[in-house]
Amino acid sequence: MRKTKMLEDNWIPDWNEVFEFPLTVPELALLRIEVHEYDMSEKDDFGGQTCLPVWELRQGIRVVPLHNQDGVKCRSVKLLVRLEFV
Length: 86
Description:
With 86 residues, the chain is an all-beta fold. Helix content is 0%, strand content 42%. The protein is built from no helices and four strands. It has strands at 30-37, 45-53, 60-67, 73-83. Strand 3 (60-67) and strand 4 (73-83) form a beta hairpin.
């Protein structure tokens, strides 16, 4: 599991971080992303989540839809990611 740095109370974050994940069996690997809004004074707010089969991912900049805790796609929340495979 990897975590980005925390950005307090910011619903338009720009993490600009790079993570590497070594894969033993890419055909079975999943990339799970979960987004929370960090609050110092209150409980963190859940922003959305997704789980993507690695074999379906393509290099480049992608818009990733997020889902709520019940698995329903969030209409107004998406994540912009850049994927690179080495």
